[in-house]
Amino acid sequence: MSNSVIQRELTALVHEKNYFHFLRHQRILITGATGLIGSMFIKLLILANETHDLDLKVIGHVRSHEKAKTIFGEYIDNKSLSLVDSSLESIDVPCDYILHGAAPTQSKFFVEHPVETIRTSIYGTEAMLELGR
Q: N or C: which end of the chain has fewer CB within 10 A?
């Protein structure tokens, strides 16, 4: 991980307390995997998996594999990480937990397309609720 401050904080969190035991043998889907929250969560889970031998599977939903390669670098070939790039509505992956972090993030888009911004968030959330059900 290139940012030593982030690496230090993630490592401290993983080692400080055993927050992760309930995730043993679980599969977690994270939408918005290349965003700030999604990517940090994936890195934290991979580190926790390696530290605590959780047999955890992390599925990251991405729009661009190229961007994912840049963000996840050293983790891209990690056996606990899978990346999917299908539409949110067509994700058909069994999972135990969903972290829905996908959302439009460009403020110019928000301003120019307010209705589409809200629709994207609502439809994406609805798709993840349906998947969870």
A: C
User: Helices (DSSP H) in 1-133: which residue ranges?
Assistant: 4-16, 36-52, 65-72, 107-112, 114-132
d(CA 80, CA 27): 9
**How far is Cα 100 from Cα 124, in angstroms, rounded to an integer?**
8
For residue range 84-124, list pLDDT tens digits in order. 987 777 777 789 999 999 888 888 988 999 999 899 889 88
At 42, list the tokens. Answer: 């994936």
Q: Which domain holds residue 67?
A: 4-102
Q: Are 50 and 74 in contact (CB under 8 A)?
A: no
Cβ atoms 32, 104 nearer than 8 A = no
pTM of the model: 0.86
Q: Quick check: is 114 in a domain? A: no
Q: Which domain CATH number covers 34?
A: 3.40.50.720
- What is the domain count for the chain? 1
Which of 20-45 are b and which e, b meaning 16 or more Cβ less than 10 Å from the residue's Cβ?
beebeebbbbbbbbbbeebbebbbbb
